[in-house]
Amino acid sequence: MLATLLDSLKDEKKASLAVADPKLASSINKLPGLTLTPISDTTTNEIYRAIRDHLPSLIPGLKQENISTMSLGLSHSLSRHKLKFSPDKVDTMIIQAIALLDDLDKELNTYAMRVKEWYGWHFPEMGKIVNDNLAYARVILKVGMRTATSNTDLSDILPEEIETAVKAAAEVSMGTEITPEDLENIQLLAEQVVGFTEYRQQLSLYLTARMAAIAPNLTEMVGELVGARLIAHSGSLMNLAKSPASTIQILGAEKALFRALKTKHDTPKYGLIYHASLVGQATGKNKGKIARMLAAKAAIGLRVDALSDWSASGEGKGDDVDDEERSALGVLSRGKVERHLRALEGKPLLPRGVAVGPNGKVAQPSKWEVKEARKYNADADGLAGDEPAAIEPVPEKKSKKEKKEKKEKKEKKRRKRRSPRSLSSKK
């Protein structure tokens, strides 16, 4: 409609066109072959406001209800076009999921510690043998009282060596007795721990699937957890994609950055990206280099994830493009970073999913070892009756007063030797 209107008015030299949007007026003014002058000022806005208020009277047959419905439909269409709405492209779900995952970790840790402390009064030895919180809670639910441990099959919960250690510790446990009512409340709390843990695993799988659908290249480079935290910290995938690599590198370390700028010290080298597996495998001197390179590659992958439209690429619909093709750039970029890290470190890299400590070493899971019980030492018993104890002679130590007196005598002798009278007598 606008093109038809401009085509009919292109030969008019003294015509003026009232435009409500200043940006549209500027674009019309730049079109070649037009001699009319677009006007966009406060007067134009007042004219349009008056037209909108009296539109039903200006157009016969138009009702106010129809105008409201048309405005609502137009608003929805514009918003959907602006957001490029798709069920698989909603990064809000990722932000909520990673926030819930962090809250679950805190609550789960609190509940698990409470269960161990509570049941530890009854069976304190099991806390040192069973380290896994989920296995600990399941053992409580299945065993109940400590005395039933030896008759309970725990092979579906614990490995054989740990099960043997638990049953052996239950025989000689020093815990106190508890009532059935106490055990019931402990088991109710253990059920909460089991339920939260299972839901956390389900939520983690959901987050992994969402990240693979929304940001496959970012997931390939930094992992789903770090990628989700970066998106949540920025507010949306589009905001993160607009950020430069230097911002992505220190995202999450804003306090340290502004403190360093205020005190004129060195700025931080990494923020949330520090928890990526590639940065964790680098040693201290190379962490900053790998973080900078990984942030640069992640910035490119983020723009592909946020701005690519597979359905408009000419290769078919978006559903026809498989996951490997979507994440091809991320796999290629990760390979380049790995080769650079291998050249810097001079050693082969660890496979994905291996836990790395802050010092760059692999974190080994703690293993329980069954040790021989300490034997009773009869020689350490005290004497009974009127039997005299053999007293060994203890060498007497000189008191501080005696040491001080001896030191003062030596000092007096030294002063006498250096006094002038002693020197004259010698002469």
Describe the structure.
Residues 214-346 form the Nop domain. Pfam families: Nop. InterPro entries: Nop56/Nop58, Nop_C, Nop_dom, Nop_dom_sf, NOSIC. This is Nucleolar protein 58. Belongs to the NOP5/NOP56 family. There is one protein chain. It contains 21 helices and two strands. The protein has 427 residues and is mostly helical. Among the domains are: 1-60, no CATH class; 90-205, Helix Hairpins, CATH 1.10.287; 215-307 and 324-345, Nop domain (Serum Albumin, Chain A, Domain 1, Orthogonal Bundle). Helix content is 60%, strand content 1%. It is extended, with a radius of gyration of 39 Å. The protein has a two-stranded parallel sheet. Strand 1, helix 2 (22-29) and strand 2 (37-39) form a beta-alpha-beta unit.
Counting H and I runs of at least 4 residues, what is the number of helices? 21
Secondary structure: helix percent: 55-70%
Overall mean pLDDT: 81
Q: Tell me the span between the first and last alpha carbons.
A: 131 Å
DSSP strand tally: 2
Spell the H/E element sequence.
HEHEHHHHHHHHHHHHHHHHHHH
| Class by SSE composition | mainly alpha
Largest sheet: 2 strands, parallel
GO cellular component, one term: box C/D methylation guide snoRNP complex
GO molecular function, one term: snRNA binding
Keywords: Nucleus, Ribonucleoprotein, Ribosome biogenesis, rRNA processing
Region (Disordered): 378-427
